[in-house]
Design brief:
There is one protein chain. Helices cover 16% and strands 28% of the residues. It is built from 4 helices and 13 strands. The strands form 4 sheets. Strands 3, 4, 7, 8 and 9 form a 5-stranded antiparallel β-sheet that branches. A 4-stranded antiparallel β-sheet has the order 1-2-6-5, with no helix packed on it. Strands 10-11 form a two-stranded parallel ribbon. β5 and β6 form a beta hairpin. The protein is globular and about 60 Å long. The mean pLDDT is 92.
Length: 208
């Protein structure tokens, strides 16, 4: 199945490449995989340890290790001209808080959804007015006087601040500016560095 997914990914037809690439939980550990067909060598830097990776015929470098949630990792890419670059995982689901930029092992499948009752009663609202409140999570409200790294509210904290305000003002929906990982606060999330990674500025993926 993995080869089929990679073939779809190479052809630009894949909606499930995350099942084959990134840090995927296996029976005996975590399989780390990245697509780098032109690299001379790729290694895994896991908590500071450098671990060789093997390349298959499709250009995917992989290695399986007994890693755990919270472990820090990057890929060390050696180019054909012998340049060496440390890179975060394009398929990471969690990242270090900026200015650090390594990826973090995280099991998003361990989250237990509990919204079935609400979904079963949800009104599609096709015949009702819609009033959307567009908001940037990190600047709508901040913790005054806090250090730069601690001035943001977490995903959980914002529930009790944003939702009551939106309801009081008569809005029916909330549209959040990008929450994917990005390096520079001033870009408001449009300078994406991790499309599958909920930004760690406001907490972890379970919080979101």
């Amino acid at each position: 199945m993995k080869n089929n997914i990679i073939t779809e990914f190479i052809n630009g037809q894949s909606c499930r490449a995350y099942e084959a690439l990134g840090a995927v939980k296996m029976e005996n550990g975590i399989r780390f995989s990245t697509y780098a067909p032109h690299a001379r060598k790729v290694e895994l830097c896991l908590n500071g340890d450098i671990i060789p990776m093997e390349c298959d015929e499709q250009g995917v470098w992989s290695v399986e290790r007994p890693a755990k949630e919270g472990d820090i990792y990057q890929y060390v890419i050696t180019t054909p001209t012998l340049e060496k670059h440390y890179r975060s995982d394009p398929f990471a689901v969690y990242s270090e808080v900026r200015p650090k930029n390594a990826s973090v092992v995280y099991d998003i499948n361990s989250y237990s959804w509990n919204d079935q009752e609400w979904l079963s009663k949800r009104d599609k609202c096709y015949e009702k007015p819609m009033n959307i409140y567009e908001v940037h999570f990190g600047s709508w409200r901040i913790k005054e006087g806090k250090e730069e790294t601690d001035r943001f509210y977490t995903y959980e904290e914002m529930i009790d601040l944003l939702i009551p305000y939106v309801k009081e003002m008569g809005y029916t929906h909330i549209e959040l500016l990008p929450l994917t990982e990005y390096p520079y606060d001033g870009s408001w999330g449009y300078q994406v560095s991790g499309y599958f990674s909920a930004t760690s500025r406001y907490g972890d993926p379970r919080g979101l």
